[in-house]
Amino acid sequence: MENILQLKNVKKTIGRKTIINGLSFMVRKGEVFGFLGPNGAGKTTTIRMIVGLMDITEGDIFICGTSIRKNFEEAIGNVGAIVENPEMYKFLSGYQNLLQYSRMHGGIPKSKISEVVHLVGLADRIHDKVKTYSLGMRQRLGLAQCLLHDPKLLILDEPTNGLDPAGIREIRDHLRMLARERGMSVIVSSHLLSEMEQMCDRIAIIQDGELVQVQEVNAFVAETGSKYSFETGPLGDMRGWLQSEWGAVFSDDGFTVDAKREDIPFILKKLVGADVAVFGVKAESKTLEDRFLEITAN
Hints:
With 298 residues, this protein is of the alpha/beta class. It has helices at residues 43-50, 72-76, 94-105, 110-119, 135-147, 165-182, 193-199, 217-221, 238-246, 264-273, 288-296, and strands at 3-14, 17-28, 32-36, 58-63, 66-67, 79-82, 153-157, 185-189, 202-207, 210-216, 226-232, 249-251, 254-259, 278-285. The chain folds into two domains: 3-217, Rossmann fold; 226-296. 36% of the residues lie in helices and 30% in strands. The strands form three sheets. The chain has a six-stranded mixed beta sheet with strand order 6-7-8-3-9-10, with helices on both faces. It has a four-stranded antiparallel beta sheet with strand order 2-1-4-5. Helix 4 (110-119) crosses helix 5. 35% of the residues are buried.
């Protein structure tokens, strides 16, 4: 599968401090790639290096096979990006902003502006001044601007910031459509891990400027088994056994354990043998948030 973006041993130092240390990963054509890490891990620094807002100390970054260090203009021509909050001319309308950007970029017809405006759901407000827009609407306008020149790589830093649940779902669906139907590669950095789980094909986790893991989302979440919730009566002496052997987390109506499917009959047999009433068992797969916190807590 074609790689649209490739980082090779990228390093960034400021003074004597190493911010990014030997970062290497690739993003495939037509995938939504999640870029995760705690605050201060180096996510935004990495994105700023990819789009040329910050110099690379060592290593290189290739976009569609072109080095940004050797031929930046050719490489960056394949990229659309929002880094942090999109900045617009607030005294102009949304349409005038897009028209101005299309003039600066060159070769973008007005029909393309109409297409991206409908794509991001701004058709009803596109002729209003940007100063009247909510933060969520500005996010949509920024996304529209990114899409005007049909980039092969879309980079979004917190794209759902300020959006209501309906807006978040709409942006998520747009990004999935762009990847699936147009073959666009999308990098998303966000703290909304539940959204990342639904949106992304693969994720990379960095911590303290170093790559921790790159993996398919489904495989990453399922890597260490599942949680099982037991609805029970009073546990009595079994409470100590469940805590010491299974690390049970207790609630008013039972407990939850991390276990494999084949462990459940054994736990049930022990509970029934101790005259504990069991009313139900429910499998709860670990979420991306669960796995992310497990990895980054160390």
